[in-house]
Structure formats: C-alpha cells, structure tokens
Amino acid sequence: MILASALVLSACGSKGGQQAAESVISEAAGAAECIASADTQPAEGTDVTSEAKAVSFSGTGTIENTVLVDEKNVKITADNLTYSAYQTTMDLLIENNSDQDLSVISGSIGYSCNAVNGYTVSSMYVNENVSAGMKVNSSVSISNEELEALGITDIAELEIGFQVKTSDYQDYLTTGPVKIETSSASFYDLSEDTYQKAISDGTFEAVSGKKITAFQTGDYFSSGGIRLVSAGLVNSGDTKAALLELENTGDQVLYFCIGDLAVNNLVLSSPNWDSMALNPGGRGVMAISIDQMTDAQEQEAFGIGEISEIAFHASICDIDNNTIAKDTEVSIAFGEDTMAVDDSGDEIYNENGIRIISKGVSDDVLYHYVLLTIINDSPATIYVSDAMGTASVNGFMVDDSTYSRTMEPGQAGAMKYGISKSSLEDDKIGTDDITTVSFQLNIGSGSSYNYIDQPKLTISYN
To answer: In whole angstroms, what is the distance from residue 433 CA to residue 358 CA?
Structure first.
C-alpha cells in the first residue's frame, strides 16, 4: 500500500496477527540494545487545520539508460522517468538469458529494499514472470502522495533491489539495493530530514487527512546500526497509529523488527508484528496501526483511551536474517502521565500473581472473539497462549485461533480468544445463542513449555 493511501488506505495480515511493514500513511490509517533518555520536543505546526500542503511533489529529475543487474544471465535495465498527477513511473527492460523460466520480484513482503532520496518506500513493486530466453517490458511506479508525506519534492536518487526465483520457487539471484541518480541529484539536499519538515509545516496532515496529535524527537533506540530518532501519534476519527522514524547508520541493509507492542502498558500485538528494511545511510518511517490490532469496539472494551505511552521489543537483523540485536525493550512516553490499565470486568483467574479478566466479546467475519485482559503482577516475564483443541461452546467442541501474548512484570495483555464461526455454524450455534465458553490457556515463563500453570477456564453469559 502507498504512503498517502495508508491514512487513506504497513503491514496487513489478519486481525490480531503478524503483519509486514507498510508505508507511513498506509499504516497510519490502518485502514516494522539500549534505551537512551529522550530529550523530547513538541513539533511545530501540529495544530494545522488548513488543507493546503506547504510543499508539493513536482518531479523534474530524469535518468539515463542504466543497467541495474547483469549477472547469472539476468539483465535488468532502467530507462525513463515519467511523471503524472498521482505517480511516477520508471521503465524497466527485463531479459532472461538463462535456460529456465524465472520470476523477477521487487518490493514484496518477502523482499524489499526500495527507497527514494534515502527514504524507504512501499509503493515500488515489480512481479514479472519471464520465460527462458525471453524479454519483458515492465515498469515500477511510485506514489507521489507517499513522497509528499515524506516531504520529498523531487527525485534525486532511487534505490531498488530484486529477488529472482525459479519456477519451483527456489532462490536464483538476489541483489542488494542498486542506486540510480537523476539529473536533480546535483542540487537536491539529501541530508535534510524532509519527513520532520513535512510534519512541522503541515504537509503530512494535508496529504494524509489525519491529525498528528503528538510528535517528539529524541534518541529512543540506538543499537545494531539503527537509531529511532522521532515518534509521533495519529489519533484522528477512527484512526489510531504510532509513527516511528528510523535511521540506518551502518553500511548494510538492516531490518528493524518490533513485537509485543503495548499501548498504555497493555500489550496488543504478537511477538513478531512488524518490520521495515532500511538501506545503508537511509531513513524510514514505520507506521504502526493500533486499529489493526484492536478495532474501535475492542478498544472501548479494553479501556484504551488516549495514547499516553507505547512500548515494544525491538530486534535488528541483516538481509540474510542473521540477528544483530535482539528483544531490546523500548518505551516512549507522550506526556508525563500514563493511563492505568482498565481492570474492570469479571475476574476468571487469579493465581501466581497473574489475573485474567473477561472483558466481553467482539466479532469479525471469521471469528467470534472472547476478550481477555491478562495482568502480570508477578516478578517474571510471562507468555500466554491457547491450548489448541480445548475450546468448547455450550458443550460442543469448536475450532479456535488465538495469538499469544508476552508480558513483562507489571504489564497487562489484551488477548482475543478466537472461536471459528464456521465451527459454530456446524453445531448450529449462533453467536447470540452462546451461554458458556470453555478453554485452556498455557501460562509460561522462561524457556518454551516451561509452564507456570495451564488453567481450564469457563465464562458464562446470560
């Protein structure tokens, strides 16, 4: 998805599951080893109400015919930048001189290291099947709105990488980011943080149509070659999202991965939630949609109000998936006071310093969710998962699907215990007919399967 469409259109994935990194606006609308003390500052212009953009993208840069890839009998050539009102297009000629059919991919969930003026972008996508000995005329398009949201007014340089696979999905060739300079490179200042400028002058809000309710800079994370240098919040209408600005200070492509994201000390995501690739010396804005974790009804049930703090575990890995930094705790406060976790509701478990509270129900197309708040007052980090095959409704066994939660001491977790609607239909049970739900949870600490308890729980409804 494109950056501007995010707040109008991150990562995707099923409700409550793992997602891949999306662009800043795409994710913000919803609808990726040390923590230094942060010297925060408010952003200028965060109360912008005008719909006018302070700057607009007006691409003028041109490129010469450039060979991007020429190895293992694969040749990819870039030529010509074409500008329209909504997108910029670069023409590609893909030549497969090998003796086997190949797929050429760029900008996918599995592999993406594409950037404009040093900023990671999500709207550059290529997927072409090229038969042995054949050529394909292709192109890659870039959303002008995504560029505007990043404060980019012209294209000075492009970076693009390719993954080539055989017809049976085996890896054939992977390239790192290949850089192409345009005719605008000689006068465009690539050292400027144009994203922060777009925040402060109101361009981001004008492009996305969403309100920035908080923005601050600081040294929130610095490890493994990645720095987290600014954080913002979008809380506008039905959109709640956090914006994290990242910099890669190293000399290789790095992936910044987050999980166990907590809002106001309540963990909402699974351990592996989002990731973003950053090219050497590059920047990126990871937009984390709270609405993809919990919808408005669920947020109300869990007592999630204004966002006053976010926290998560951050890891860094290289392009070959080698871990460089793992599970660093990051916490960012937006103001002095943090909202307390809402512990109202029916308590269905209280053992070992761990409480579980029933918070009601919610539904989507596939699942009926039992909402649970798990409060960890124990001295240990705990993980809670479901014991598959133990769920029943009104005495009938049903299929379930639930994502685990990991909670540090003093944290709480929001769990959505999903009951398959098709399974309910097989048993001729409507969601309004449910009187009892029973299931087992696994509560562990330390190594896998080191369970503290495996409680069997039952919730009754009138």
So the answer is: 18
Identity at 293, one-letter amino acid code: M
Partners of residue 441 on adjacent β-strands: 386
- Alpha helices, H only, 234-307: 296-302
8 Å CB contact between 16 and 37: no
pLDDT digits (tens, 9 = 90+) for 302-327: 999 889 999 999 999 998 889 999 88
The span from the CA of 157 to the CA of 249, in Å, is 18
Output the pTM of the full model.
Answer: 0.87
Confidence of residue 230 (pLDDT cuts 50, 70, 90): very high
Whether 66-181 and 346-460 share one fold: the answer is yes
Q: Which CATH architecture best describes the domain 66-181? A: Sandwich (2.60)
Beta carbons of 460 and 436 less than 8 angstroms apart: yes
**How far is 368 from 297, CA to CA, in rounded Å?**
13
Q: Residue 446, by phi and psi: left (phi above 0), alpha (psi -120 to 50) or beta?
A: left
- One CATH from 2.60.40, 3.90.550, 2.60.120, 1.25.40 for 346-460: 2.60.40
Sorted by where each begins, the domain ranges of the chain are 10-53+201-333, 66-181, 346-460
Could you give phi then psi for residue 333, rounded to 5 degrees? -100, 140
